């Protein structure tokens, strides 16, 4: 059997990291003990994945160490990286006694047709884990493979699976970030939350959840303000999730007087030092406003040639620095989730997540984000090249597969 894997030159090689290639190699005939072979059906692709690629070799993140590029056609794991993707697949072979062929699974896969994964001993009915002892223990959420049959959030319809791949990795970050903010009463009663890269799914899901909290608490005083590029202003306003939206160029001339008054939290999804410095300077100069804290949540502005994000963004090597001064506070979901797991029962957390997910699935249809299904190796390569050239438009959400359209969706491919 032939495998196909989407790979990229590493930024440290002398090649262009944006030159994606689809590498052909053989699927192993026999698999080692305690392994599974998956057929990767399809996977979501958003700026989140471009960030994984950009930080593939960065010392804190090491995203290229989850799946390795094969040795084939002038490609090797020292010259090339594999960008992880969130996707669905089916187990076709297993040498683990507790995991069986035919199971539908969701996880942090390689953009490939087939994927061989080791399975650790702690298998339960909800999930199993890929052992990756070379990575820090806090990467455990990336090692979890969810067994769909017992997943309370799973809906097998093709559109529900597509929405899951697109929103699930981002929504839970936004969800637990909002829960964390709420646990401190929004850092002591902040009245305004400013969010950059406001057109991104991570940012607007956070805005959505803050609005939801406002309505649950009967509070109309906590306002959510978006910052975005000029070209994405119309989309971001149309979402109707922000109280106000400003563009990066002119926010400091618009966000003044009564509009600026209050206690502010800034949640940064761009990772752009220059923008963050302008935000801070602006609030320092505004008489009646206080910038309580700046939180690092994303890095939409890193590019594939970036090797390390700057420490000023909160993601660099000294990113542990607390709030205050010019440092960013870093929200790290696994850390907060482990605190919540001590405070709440598993069933309470499952219930919270189920309610939030069900509501998201019914609300997200009005946000004007359309699914774009891309099937086949040449088509996926072309779609990637288009993103490198044009960037990712917020109104388009990609689901990719290295298999042909009919195999993946049958006759339902066209939405
Ligand atoms: N902390 C975490 O654990 C965590 C978890 C999930 C996601 N994230 C991060 O959140 C960020 C957003 O991911 P997403 O998948 O939600 O994004 P998305 O929906 O694909 O966002 C698209 C938006 O990102 C901005 N953007 C895209 N490409 C860009 C480029 N080349 N240069 C500058 N801006 C660009 C634009 O927003 P604007 O015009 O509005 O700037 C664009 O509208 C990513 O950096 C991701 O890694 C972090």
The N- and C-terminal alpha carbons lie at a distance of: 31 Å
SSE topology string: EEEHEEEEEHEHHEHEHEHEHEEHHEHEH
CATH class of the largest domain: Alpha Beta
Total discrete domains: 2
Tally of strands? 17
InterPro entries: DUF2855
Pfam families: DUF2855 (PF11017)
Protein name: DUF2855 family protein
Organism: Suillus discolor
What does it look like?
By secondary structure, the chain is an alpha/beta fold. The chain has 2 domains: 2-151 and 369-412, Quinone Oxidoreductase, Chain A, domain 1, CATH 3.90.180; 164-339, Rossmann fold (3-Layer(aba) Sandwich), CATH 3.40.50.720. It is 32% helix and 24% strand. The protein is built from 12 helices and 17 strands. The chain has helices at 47-54, 140-143, 158-183, 185-189, 201-217, 233-238, 251-254, 273-285, 333-343, 346-363, 377-390, 405-409; strands at 2-9, 21-26, 35-45, 80-81, 85-94, 104-109, 114-118, 127-129, 144-147, 192-195, 223-228, 244-247, 262-268, 289-296, 329-330, 370-375, 396-401. The strands form 3 sheets. Strands 3, 5, 6, 7, 8, 9, 16 and 17 form an 8-stranded mixed beta sheet that branches. A 6-stranded parallel beta sheet has the order 12-11-10-13-14-15, sandwiched between helices. Strand 13 (262-268), helix 8 (273-285) and strand 14 form a beta-alpha-beta unit. Helix 3 (158-183) crosses helix 5 (201-217). The longest helix is centred in the middle third of the chain and has 26 residues, at 158-183. The radius of gyration is 21 Å and the shape is globular. The relative contact order is 0.14.
């Amino acid at each position: 059997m032939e495998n196909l894997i989407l790979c990229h030159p590493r930024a440290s090689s002398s090649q262009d990291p944006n030159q994606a290639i689809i590498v052909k190699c053989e699927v192993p005939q026999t698999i080692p003990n305690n392994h599974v072979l998956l057929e990767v059906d399809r996977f979501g692709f958003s700026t989140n994945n471009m960030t994984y690629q950009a930080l593939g070799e960065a010392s804190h993140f090491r995203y290229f160490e989850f799946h390795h590029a094969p040795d084939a056609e002038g490609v090797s794991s020292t010259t090339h990286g594999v960008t992880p993707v969130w996707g669905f697949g089916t187990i076709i072979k297993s040498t683990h006694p507790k995991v069986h062929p035919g199971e539908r699974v969701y996880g942090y896969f390689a953009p490939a047709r087939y994927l061989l994964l080791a399975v650790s001993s702690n298998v339960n009915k909800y999930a199993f884990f890929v052992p990756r002892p070379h990575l820090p223990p806090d990467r455990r959420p990336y090692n979890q493979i969810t067994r769909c049959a017992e997943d309370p959030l799973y809906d097998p319809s093709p559109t529900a699976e597509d929405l899951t791949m697109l929103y699930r990795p981002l929504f839970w970050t936004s969800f637990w970030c909002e829960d964390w903010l709420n646990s401190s009463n929004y850092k002591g009663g902040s009245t305004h939350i400013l969010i950059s890269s406001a057109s991104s799914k991570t940012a607007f899901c956070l805005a959505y959840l803050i609005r939801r909290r406002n309505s649950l608490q009967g509070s109309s005083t906590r306002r959510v303000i978006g910052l975005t590029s000029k070209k994405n202003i119309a989309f971001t306003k149309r979402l109707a999730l922000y109280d106000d939206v400003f563009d990066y160029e002119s926010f400091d001339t618009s966000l003044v007087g009564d509009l600026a008054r209050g206690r502010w939290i800034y949640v940064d999804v761009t990772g752009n030092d220059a923008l963050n410095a302008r935000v801070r300077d602006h609030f320092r100069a505004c008489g009646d406003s206080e910038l309580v804290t700046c939180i690092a949540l994303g890095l939409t502005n890193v590019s594939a040639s970036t090797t390390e994000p700057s420490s000023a963004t909160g993601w660099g090597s000294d990113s542990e620095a607390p709030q205050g001064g010019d440092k960013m506070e870093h929200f790290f979901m696994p850390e907060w989730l482990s605190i919540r797991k001590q405070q709440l029962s598993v069933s309470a957390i499952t219930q919270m997540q189920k309610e939030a997910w069900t509501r998201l699935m019914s609300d997200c249809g009005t946000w004007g984000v359309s699914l774009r299904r891309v099937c086949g190796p040449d088509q996926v390569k072309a779609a990637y090249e288009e993103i490198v050239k044009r960037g990712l438009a917020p109104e388009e959400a990609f689901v990719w597969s290295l298999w042909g359209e009919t195999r993946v969706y049958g006759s339902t491919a066209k939405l």
